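for the record, two folds in this file. i put them one after another cuz i was lazy. first one right below, seq on top, structure tokens after. the second one comes after a little note so u can tell where it starts
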Amino acid sequence: MLDIKTKVARKSQNILQKILANSNLNPYAHGRSIPDVFMGADNPENVRLVLLGQDPTVKRLSSLKNITTVLNLDKQGSNLYKYISRICEILGLKLNQHIYATNFAKNFFVSLPTQIEGRNILDEFSDYWLPLLREELAFSPGRPIITFGQPLLAVLTVNQRKALVRQYWDYKQDWRQNPATNFSSVAPDENKLGRRLFPFTNQVCKRNSTVPR
């Protein structure tokens, strides 16, 4: 019996080939190998939290060859690794024991999806990737899911009026002096995965940066 990581890898590669054969989507998909999903202890029974990234694309396409695992969780020095480690620490979890991480869109894009003008590229690719994601996450019913980034939340949310990360972060205009206290989540019937989602930004918010959109 194939393990989850192997199943996802094989099915993802098959889907990528179908995408590359689609003349409408092919110009936006990069043919590079899909990064592996991450499972802390390689044991589904130990998973207590699912992390869901948007896609593996980065701004510098020359760096794609260095991305081999979802959210760079094989690289302890990366900013994402440090960010996620801090989240785990706050929640009382261990990254290398309790976490499963995957991407909504498994393939690399030729550019960051937000920089592809005139196309909602994540939504267009969702017919390929959403069914696999639902199947992939079936092993973890009831586990909470953290989503990273505004574009991902938008493509998963049923009601686009509830598709802003800041809506779940108790955003206030004077947020620096009046920090958020009443965080909320996306209910199962409000998203396409049918699971409870906790929207996060995709990077650490610096003290002087803007709040999540």
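(here's the note) second protein begins now
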Amino acid sequence: MRFGPVASQDSTYTISIDPDGTTFTIAFSNIQADVGDVALDPSYRPTFALTLPLTDGAHNSTVTFYASGYAFVTKGATARLIFSVNGHTVVKNFSAGWDDEYIQQLKLPAIPASECQLSLDLEVNQVPGSPDGTAQIGVSSIDGNIK
């Protein structure tokens, strides 16, 4: 089983699929959320969506996706990553004191001749009554492999 080609005109990311078609990397130039952005526009919520085809293949393969990035959260704020593939969703909540990189994994059966619908949502919030709360979360890449 292999990842198929993806055509995109979007300049906010680049996608690289290895020659053997079993691994890929999507590198983002700037997908992040900051409490300051939400203060200016309460509906601001960075998102990303992409359809990645699976070609060829045999049954009993597994595809694993990894969303990685950085989050910083102080007292009085929260951050959240919502990572979905084909309706399977993992939510990573970042609470006060988080100041580090993260990797969030999502593992699914690979279905030959299908498509993987990937999506990301980033949320940051200031706790009501905490004007000094700060949060920032970004995604630097999504990686995937088939085994």
